[in-house]
Design a protein that fits this description.
alpha/beta; Elongation Factor Tu (Ef-tu), domain 3; 9-stranded parallel β-sheet; about 350 residues; 10 helices; 19 strands; TIM Barrel
């Protein structure tokens, strides 16, 4: 059976690197754990670290986190669905919000649970995902401040996730100024200006992050060591915390070009082949992971001689050329993964999850 491993020591190294980086700038930061899909084996390893805040986009994941460490501060990082409001108040100390009707429901539920629910109000700075429009934000804050059992602890924004709109100095200065305007107009303290995510970290390296930005929400860079802004890797960080291991379940020398009358495959794709390769053969292997678990474009063989040639729901087919490493049925092949690959694989109930080099 295929399995994915998490290297605890490498995760710890990346965490310490980011924690030191943010501490130098007096920036508070939250770990975004949604890549772990609430997997308890991996959450237990993650929560060995000295994490002060943790974010997730699934209430069930926050519930799991609270069951492991009730004292950790949890953040629900998307506007809550109305039906989820009771559990958001129950398991999230903080939530990101953009709708006054939803915040009213949070207020009512917080009163029922005898809690004060904290919120960060998201402002749209051009990405057109979640966020209050800038023309409306003064009136929006005024309405929220009137609600009982709701404490506004921050203003934030999201960039890069939908259309790839990058954060820059100008946009983040705007966010900081909006915070100052709210504080001046309503005589309220807004502790967090949450303008940072993995894609914003390079602005720290370039020394152009506005001083007002004092809160980051980071997932991808922690788990993959990526400079998301430039689509490169950060030299001092580990990029292979996760590794997919998949077993060869068939290995046979076969023709390179299929034969017969062609239609479409299960995804509706049709294919054309180079007829000049008729008669050529190579060793083809089938591994025990398929489209049900992950798309092949999100995983990358550590053996650069391996090439993907096809996929179906439960199997991926790879070309081993003349099989120079003498692979055989039963051998495990290793694959690196990008963010979406990790997310899909961990979310698959058919893939085992294991920790190696656990944090002591």
């Amino acid at each position: 059976m295929a399995f994915i491993t998490l290297d605890g020591k490498k995760l710890q190294k990346n965490f310490k690197y980011l924690d030191k980086l943010f501490a130098k700038k007096n920036i508070k930061w939250s770990v975004v754990s949604k890549i772990l899909s609430g997997n308890k084996t991996f959450l237990l390893e993650l929560l060995k670290l000295d994490i002060k805040q943790i974010c997730d986009s699934r209430v069930t994941n926050l519930k799991s986190i609270k069951s492991i460490n009730p004292d950790i501060e949890t953040i629900y990082i998307k506007p809550p669905a109305k039906r989820a409001v009771p559990n958001v108040v129950r398991y999230a100390d903080i939530s990101l919000n953009t709708g006054i009707d939803t915040i009213k429901l949070l207020s009512e539920e917080a009163q029922k649970q005898d809690k004060t629910h904290k919120i960060i109000i998201m402002i749209d700075l051009g990405e057109l995902r979640e966020g209050v429009m800038r023309d409306d934000f003064i009136h929006f804050f005024q309405s929220v401040f009137e609600l009982p059992n709701i404490e506004v602890i921050g203003i934030g924004t999201n960039l890069s996730c939908l259309y790839g709109v990058l954060p820059n100095q100008d946009k983040l200065i705007q966010l900081s100024l909006y915070s100052q305007l709210i504080e001046a107009k309503f005589n309220k303290k807004i502790p967090f200006v949450s303008g940072g995510s993995s894609v914003t970290i390079p602005l720290i390296f370039q020394k152009i992050l506005p001083k007002g930005i004092n809160h980051f929400r980071v997932g991808e860079t922690l788990f993959l060591g990526t400079d998301v802004y430039h689509e490169t890797l950060i030299k001092s960080m580990e990029s292979d915390i996760f590794t997919l291991h998949s077993q060869i379940i068939e290995l046979i020398e076969k023709p390179v070009v299929p034969t017969g009358e062609f239609g479409t495959n299960l995804e509706g794709d049709s294919f054309e082949f180079d007829e000049s390769k008729l008669g050529e053969k190579s060793y083809r292997a089938i591994i025990d992971v398929g489209l049900l678990d992950v798309e092949q474009k999100h995983i990358f063989p550590t053996d650069e001689n391996i090439e993907f040639v096809g996929a179906s729901s439960d199997m991926l087919v790879i070309d081993l050329k003349n099989n120079p490493k003498n692979y055989k049925v039963g051998d495990l092949l290793e694959f690196k993964l990008n963010y979406m690959g990790i997310l899909r694989i961990i979310n698959s109930k058919y893939i085992d999850k294991k920790v190696i080099n656990p944090i002591s």
